[in-house]
Design a protein that fits this description.
mainly alpha, about 160 residues
Length: about 160
């Protein structure tokens, strides 16, 4: 079964998906170099590093899938293609590292909020969410992996 990010236990399915998407965007705007290597330079990694990066990517994808599936199961999402939707959302997030600029017109928080809204539309959610509960706070560049499993985090 897909992993569920423990911090999301008390959120609605829509808040959970918004939090996952928003956190992913914040990571990719604050860790652009790591994101670039993890998404476009896999062929350059040593075998042991490749295994580690692919495992992290798989874990992140499972968090997205769990959020989508929870919304489908609850009836909150009208999403006939959950696997393809997960791929679209993950790819949408990783692409931010390519075009985002610290000195650009938009902040990471604004992009996170907009992408969370896009994600909710993509899964067919028609309600409103409490964005103050769902969207992540800014994390410094040295932030630990936001998708770390219990015991892996330092915050």
């Amino acid at each position: 079964p897909p992993a569920r990010w423990p911090r999301l236990q008390n959120m609605s399915p829509a808040e959970e998906l918004a939090a996952v998407v928003g956190t992913n965007i914040m990571f990719h705007t604050h860790q652009q170099d790591a994101s670039f290597v993890g998404n476009s330079e896999l062929r350059s990694l040593r075998d042991e590093d490749l295994v580690r990066v692919v495992a992290i990517r798989d874990r992140i994808a499972s968090v997205f899938m769990a959020a989508i599936q929870r919304g489908i199961d609850s009836g909150d999402f009208d999403c006939p293609s959950p696997k393809e939707t997960k791929i679209a959302l993950v790819t949408m997030g990783t692409s931010v590292a390519v075009w985002f600029r610290d000195n650009g017109p938009e902040t990471p928080e604004t992009i996170a909020e907009r992408f969370a809204d896009i994600a909710l539309r993509l899964v067919g959610y028609r309600g409103e969410i409490d964005k103050s509960r769902a969207l992540p706070v800014i994390r410094p560049r040295s932030a630990p992996d936001p998708f770390a499993e219990d015991g892996d985090e330092t915050d």
